[in-house]
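Appendix C reproduces, verbatim, an entry submitted by the partner laboratory led by Prof. M.T., so that reviewers can inspect both the input and the predicted structure.
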Amino acid sequence: MHFGYNLRGIEEKIVAEIFQGYVEKIVFRNKDNGYTVLGLSAEGDEITCVGTFSYINEGDFIEVRGEVIAHAVYGEQLKVESYVIKEPEDDLSIERYLGSGAIKGLGPGLAGRIVRKFGKDTFHVIENETERLAEVKGISMRMAQEIGIQFEEKKEMRNAMIFLQQYGISLAFSVKIVETYGQSLYEIIKQNPYKLAEDISGIGFRLADDIATKAGVMTDSDYRVKAGILHVLTQAGNNGHVFLPKERMLSMAKELLGVEEEKIEHQLIDMVMEKKIVIKQDEEQERIYSSVYYYTELNVARMLLDLNIPYTILREEIEKRLLSFQKYHNIQLDDMQKTAVIEAARNGVLVVTGGPGTGKTTTINAIIRFFESEGMDILLAAPTGRAAKRMSETTGYEAQTIHRLLEISGGMEGSEKGTHFERNETNPLETDVIIIDEMSMVDISLMCSLLKAIVVGTRLVLVGDVNQLPSVGPGNVLRDIIDSGAFPVVKLTKIFRQAAESDIIVNAHKINAGQPISMDNKSRDFFLLQRDNANVIINVLLQLITQKLPKYVDATPYDIQVLTPMRKGELGVDRLNQILQQYLNPPSEDKKERETTQGLFREGDKVMQIKNNYQIEWEIKNDRGFQLNSGTGVFNGDCGIVREINPFAETLTVEFEEGKTVQYG
């Protein structure tokens, strides 16, 4: 079918139209928002339809209403405003629907025989007299029942999707809700939609609360108050806290829910009985834990104690090996570094901590060489890809992210399991020694998963700077292990000569010690450029990034990271990102762009993953486009470049370090 009009712009509205036809092919579908591009066969012509379809399948007979538009890139389209799925009425339409693949195992030939047998009564027979389908040649009683079941399931799914759309629930979540609850979803939505936040990943309190409002749930409902308490504790976990003081929790829940504290406090005992929270009293206050975090922390403590068994190895033998190591590598270990090797050899768990430049890397190497000389298998890991890469470079051993070490598996569509680690208590890591670097970045959940995969008898060495910021996730694991006093800890304090030449390192130690630092700008790597005006600061920043730093330290703008303590404001993350993008990667005709809720993305932009995504798929290809490797998971802090934006499919492809490419929808 040809819609006659002139192309005078990217998109030009012509006239409202109504079409009926079959969905021949779904070209593209965004499972989050339902945006769909499909081919509609209407009276012998194929029409490209674009719009939001809450539920649609190839083979469906639909009526669409919309405006015919001209798109300069994709041509003639029907921009759909509304649609209705209709049951085919004439024999030919019924036959075509049944033979479209909508019912598994039912092809065009069999569909034709069914329609010739039952005519316009076909759907009535399938729904109400399913056994009569066995009267058709080629259909057994079992197959007839299967056809009836599938037909009913499709009808139920369609009704459920339409019902859920009334509450503003996205297509992707609607599918999850139907799969999780089946026909009980109607009762759950109307009585306790907060259950969705507990059972379905991605549906949080805010969305459940919106649904509850539309369903008429009272603001002081017990369901709502309990869900609000769990939300407050979950948000606290996202901010790094395993628990909240009771008074703080009550205050935050009151602000969230808009109900009195007495109503909130009244639910606490019920939630303890339901094992959703744990309340613990210490000397100063009552602590409110989410049960998940409480028992995770308890398990971490238990498993660490189980691993921490003593080993009988003569000190003289260890020192002899260390002497050989120092001579071979022409280095001199200080007393605390030697102590670290000795403690690692004689204990199941050891913590090595120290600030920058105190020789943690050299100590790791000495520990590795000792265990290597004992013929032991050693595994190295760190929380991030960048830290693991640096660990590999400085030790000569392969280091992995902890997620990769534990063989994360991604809970992709069609998987029976959600996101999980293949390595666990039933499939532990097979090694003698595990060394974890950058331990300050490890949160309580990841630590628990790691320990589950380590059998008693394996030595565990934890290395990190306790004065660094704690993990983004819940818990302050490294500091808590040290403060417990239950495990051997070696603190490295000596700043070695090469590190002492860096004022960044020297000043970091001075700040930790409460000592004054010099601000005279005579340093080689530590400067304070004080300006009082935001625009002047931005100009100085641009000069540093585009001119001075690339020359001074031989760095590209990609190598330079700007840090600011706030998100909003004249010097916040959002505004600085816009300004830096404009100067470092300005718009051009050959760079495609995409506007999102997170801002404008442009091909060539430097981007950072700011939240762990265990399920997203990545791949590595060679220059010819052949896949060399693939896997799942992109993690907080991973940086990359936007390589491609596909405006038609609404996707954005990022190439991360090591050549991993990831497609975002």
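The CA atoms of residues 321 and 327 lie 10 Å apart. Additional entries are available on request from the coordinating office.
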